[in-house]
């Protein structure tokens, strides 16, 4: 029996070791990636749906892996969160976004830059100070930025997350609720948090011209946002028909492949100059 037990333990340990070995090596890989400059900043334009003007960008990180090629955020962000590496990454994204925003301003392009925050970022008491530091170094005002947060990022520790968000809000940065409508308590957060913007999740937008249910949800969300004095943004606009529909419903801004896929940061200025709505 003892042998069986110890064999069982061996099997269990082997499985455990394999899992922890894998995550250890992924963490090492992420750290190496940062040292070797393998992360890339991509940005997707945010467009005014009534005028067609470029009003902002959203920063979306990519990992250009020497062997695996381009790794998409869904494959490494969750892991970066688990290990705490996300704090390093968020700081990098903030810094690069600020540098881009400043460059654009110098070329006469004045737009707001949105950056995604995750759970760990909201639990980081030093985030407002770090953010301030980034702004100071690039000579930017907080109002050039919008920070996007999801409900799941808030849910882990709502009290602490709320404290961080109030401090950021007091600094004058815009806050946005991302993936709105996909969680269970988005409405509660909308009431409690100092937000300026609501982003309708792309799952309601992608196919809305063929789906009456989606259209109803989107229409109600736009009205809800406006009744609360918020800017409403739709993501996942893949056709002109959806743009028109959203504009008719009064949606303020939009993002999507119809206008542009996320672009490497250094391609943005040219894209803006060539953009014709
Ligand atoms: P998200 O914040 O909801 O970003 C929107 C995602 O929708 C992006 O995927 C974008 O490329 C994609 N998208 C934009 N327009 C369209 C469209 O018309 N059709 C379709 N089908 N998709 C569209 P991406 O870049 O793969 O990012 C996935 C998620 O990874 C993001 O979702 C965000 O949660 C996370 N993420 C990306 N960059 C960062 C980052 O720097 N920090 C953090 N914490 N999370 C990030
Ligand atoms: Ca986002
Ligand atoms: Ca989203
Ligand atoms: Ca999302």
Task: Note the main attributes of this structure.
277 residues; globular; single chain; alpha/beta; binds ligand C2E; 52% helix
Give your account of this protein's structure:
The chain is of the alpha/beta class and 277 residues long. It is built from twelve helices and ten strands. The chain has helices at 2-35, 73-83, 86-106, 119-123, 127-138, 151-155, 158-171, 186-192, 202-205, 212-227, 240-248, 268-274, and strands spanning 39-48, 54-65, 69-71, 112-116, 145-149, 174-180, 197-200, 231-234, 253-254, 263-264. It has an eight-stranded mixed β-barrel with strand order 1-2-4-5-6-7-8-9, surrounded by four helices. A hairpin with a 5-residue loop joins strand 1 and strand 2 (54-65). Helix 3 packs parallel to helix 5. The chain starts with a helix and ends with a helix. The model is unreliable at 1-16 (pLDDT under 50). The structure holds ligand C2E and calcium ion (3 copies).
Poorly predicted runs are 1-16
Mean model confidence by pLDDT: 90
What is the first-to-last residue Cα distance?
75 Å
In percent terms, what proportion of residues is strand? 15-25%
Percent of residues in helices comes to 40-55%
**Helix and strand element order:** HEEEHHEHHEHHEHEHHEHEEH
Give a quick account of the main beta sheet: strands, pairing sense, barrel closure.
8 strands, mixed, barrel
| Count of individual beta strands | 10
Instruction: Give the distinct bound molecules.
Output: ligand C2E, calcium ion
Strand order of the largest sheet: 1-2-4-5-6-7-8-9
Number of helices: 12
SSE class: alpha/beta
Choose one word for the global shape: globular
Over the alpha carbons, how many angstroms does the gyration radius reach? 21 Å
Protein name: EAL domain-containing protein
Organism: Zemynaea arenosa
GO cellular component, one term: membrane
Keywords: Membrane, Transmembrane, Transmembrane helix
